[in-house]
Amino acid sequence: MFDVLRGIISKVPADYVDIRYEKMSETKIVLNNREIFQLGTNTGDGFVVRVLKNGGFSSIAFTKVEDVEKAIKICLENAELISKNSKKKVKLAEVEVIKDTFIPSLREDPRKVSIDEKLELLMHYNEIPLKFENITTNMQYTEVIREKYFVSSEGTEIREDLITTGIRGMIISRDGSLVQNVRVGIGGSDGFYRLRNREEEFEKNTKIVLDLLKAEPVKGGVYNVILNPDMTGVFTHEAFGHFSEADLIEDNLSMREKMKIGAKLGSDILTIIDDPTIPNQLGFYKYDDEGVRARRTYLLKDGVLSGRLHSRRTAAEFGEPITGHCVAEDYRYAPIVRMGNIFIEPKDKSFEELLDLLGDGLYILDAKGGQTSGENFTFGAQYAFEVKNGKIVKMLRDINISGNLYKTLMDIVAIGRDFELSEVGGCGKGQLNIRSCHGGPHILVKNVVIGGVK
Amino acid sequence: MLEKLVEIGKKYADEVEIYQVNNFSSGVSFENGVLKDIETSIQSGISLRIIKDGKLGFSYTKNLLDPEGFVKNAIDSLKGDIKIEFSFPIGKELKTLNTYDLEIENLTNTKMVEEGQRISDILSQATNTQVNVGLVKSVSEIRIINSNGVDYSTKNSFYMCYAAAMYPGSYSSITRVVADKKFKEFSKEDFDYIIFLYNSSRKEVKPKSGKMKVMFLPNTMYVLIWRLVYGTNGKNVYEKTTPLIDKIGSQIFDPAISIYNDPFDDTIPGSRAFDDEGVESKILPIVENGVLKNFYYDLYYGSKMGVGSTGNGYKVSDWGGEIIRVRPTPSLEHLHMKPGDKDFYEMIKSMDKGIIVAQALGAHSGNIPNGDFSIGLSPGLYVENGEILGHVKDAMVAGNIYEVMRNVLSLENKTYMANMGVFPSAIFEDVSVAIRE
Residue A357: which domain range? Predict the structure, then answer.
């Protein structure tokens, strides 16, 4: 494969060119209640070429190898058009030339488990909530195997495989016209073993969705809250993480000003790291889709902005070190800057100490989708408990949080000593990253806006 | 080629259906007045469905390198034992729609760069803030062929341009989108809309929390529509996860609200005479004068419910997933809300106290099945005595569509193509707003 790719780019008259060919095999089993909706393994493939010419940088994605000449011609024209019309000349940060093949070692290769066994396991977990008459489910098994080949005109040649397995779904309960739901998900990047013996997760979420039918809706307002590790992770990802992605602020001068290295953005106890290289977590990769080795990156150290996530283009633009965070969803896309595995570093507090410090407020658990506009962010939670005098009182539903990047990080007043990373991901920054990993400990945050009808 | 594939399929299966899509798209983006990216994509792919002994098989491929293997993959998936109670449709004469405008072929990237620069320059000068602009053109061809005589094709042209005036320190913005089957200039009306809303809300204000009038713009109406689209989806009716079961014929919204699906309106891009499973399209009222009229179905759920498809089987994938990888499911791809009789600017003047939801955050979270929403404002514009006083940031608007949409104050006399459909602006009474002081 390297020979073919090398052949394609060798003819391109540009300052820099790279090509990625990717074959992706996807196994999917979808259950709606007890009915199988989809089952099978399929394969797709395609090419992405990027060209840098006279400071103009452009990309093209295409499916058919016979389109290669047409595609490269369009891509060169676009690069020249940018070069002619943009005052800014794109440069790519220097990187080491790499020749490597990286196939992850797995605990139980999902390709060696038969589809019958996968179906049986999915049905087994699906039965746990379906024991209850007023529950319906949508559950799916997904296995994505990406075989990526990257070649650049600088001589880098990398093959890396990414293997992601997961079972995820929605459990829905109903009482008259009241409908409640929770999301459930297990999985990872290091083998099929993660999906075995996980009944507890489905039992726990079944109980939650039934309890939610009796829970009271939260009253809208401003609260002090404890977030559990899953909420901490989404909070870190939405409230802060996206704006440490250099491409998002590259051309937003007012945000770039506020996000200067050395800016004090968080409380003294707050340290945030993105590290795709930690083994056995969902977001693991060795090289990004520009052929750059991934690095552990301190984003916030003791509340002070100390780094950000880069592509080669943004690293050169900002004059900051490369981090290896430029990643594509699949063969249809050029890579963009992404978080790999973002988390808050644990500190010293036990959960009981956090409850005592909270006094009155909310304990909020398990995230349910979020979004950010840079300064402001919003995300939902599966459920919460009202806390009075440091004691958990009752369950509440309809929890949605909103906050402000520049204020909320200062309001993190205590950090727990536990630590957990997410098992399933799905960050939709134009492209869906199913390996987006996040987490941290329990944290205590002051003055959080909670939306509510009451 | 596809005919041959049908033949191969017929050797193994009772019925065969092939869905082929080819797409060319080119996008240009400007950030802060500077040309940033041009990206092009040439994609194609094929999905295959077969029916054998009342069971459904499915497979897909990007490059049809191995037709036999591709069919075999669909045969293999039969062991999933997916029981169905429908046949693929029979071919017939369909309505001719004007879906493709030849002019799209003359639209070069150079022309889009010029238009993007023009919009950036005018808006940055008028608003004195950061302006981002994106332009995209695409041409897609779909062909569906089945063993029951369907062989339908459609070629669609699409042009879209958005411009956003951004509030400092954030990605919150006032945005306007124009879309057409061919290039369409960003008009004076479009500029005036952004300039008025941005300039009059420049200041940050912090009103008190409470219940007030809330206006959704065409580009934020999807927050509410998302819940309705869930509630009327034939899949959720079949699975009994919608609160609208048994509500056909009931008043669920204010009598001012009528929402219908119209695939035939070919004055806008994307019109279709058939859906993604070769079923003839039709106009389907969802809500008429506030009364729930219809649920929508594809072949699969339509047959399960014994009502048949409503021509709403589409291959859709959340978050930009590739459509050839999924089976059709019920989907409203051509939604319209009927306009009212009020001028947009008069509507603002009629608000004694309220919030305009200019951009919403987190529409996908919250209890969608139940109709609940709870969104961050990004931003909201605060109105008092008919005047926009400024923008609100740390705030949430929350409610349940089956309560909020019962209480319409006014609807705009015009509609705009936006996320999830073609909508007017609308003001609702007594909606909860929580604001961080």
Answer: 217-451
Q: Which residues of B touch A41 (CB under 8 A)?
A: 73, 76
Which amino acid is it at B197? L
pLDDT score, position A239:
84
Short-list B94, B93, B1, B87, CA closest to B44: B1
Beta-carbon separation of B376 and A377 below 8 A = yes
Domain-ending residue, one of B124, B157, B192:
B192
Q: What is the CATH number of the domain that holds A21?
A: 3.30.2290.10
Encoded amino acid at A22, one letter: E
Put simply, the chain A residues between 318 and 377 with a CB less than 8 A from any chain B CB are 329-332, 334, 368-377
Q: What are B52-102's pLDDT values in tens digits?
A: 999 999 999 998 888 888 999 999 999 888 899 999 999 999 999 999 999
ipTM of model: 0.90
B430: phi > 0 → left, psi -120 to 50 → alpha, else beta; which? left
What's the predicted TM-score (pTM) here? Answer: 0.92
Structural domain that includes position B26: 2-192
For chain A, how many structural domains are there in total?
A: 2
Listed in sequence order, the DSSP H helices in B99-252 are 109-127, 188-200, 222-231, 234-238
H-helix segments, A259-320: 312-318
Provide the token pair at B131. Answer: 């302006």
How does pLDDT run across B138-181, given as a tens digit for each residue?
Answer: 999 999 999 999 999 999 999 999 999 999 988 899 999 999 99
User: How many domains is chain B built from?
Assistant: 2
Let me know whether B154 and B222 are in one domain.
no
Cα dihedral sign, A331-A332-A334-A337: negative
CA B102 to chain centre: 24
Task: Among A325-329, A381-385, B1-5, B28-32, name the one with the lowest average pLDDT.
Answer: B1-5
Q: Which of residues 157-186 of A touch B (CB under 8 A)?
A: 172, 174, 177-181
Instruction: Return the closest-CA partner of residue B18 out of B53, B54, B64.
Output: B64
Q: Is the pLDDT of residue B253 over 90?
A: yes
| Cα–Cα distance measured from residue A43 to residue A85, given in angstroms and rounded to the nearest whole number | 39
Condensed to tens digits (0 to 9), the pLDDT of residues A132-146 reads 999 999 999 999 999
Question: Do A208 and A236 belong to one domain?
Answer: no
Residues A273 and A367 in one domain: yes
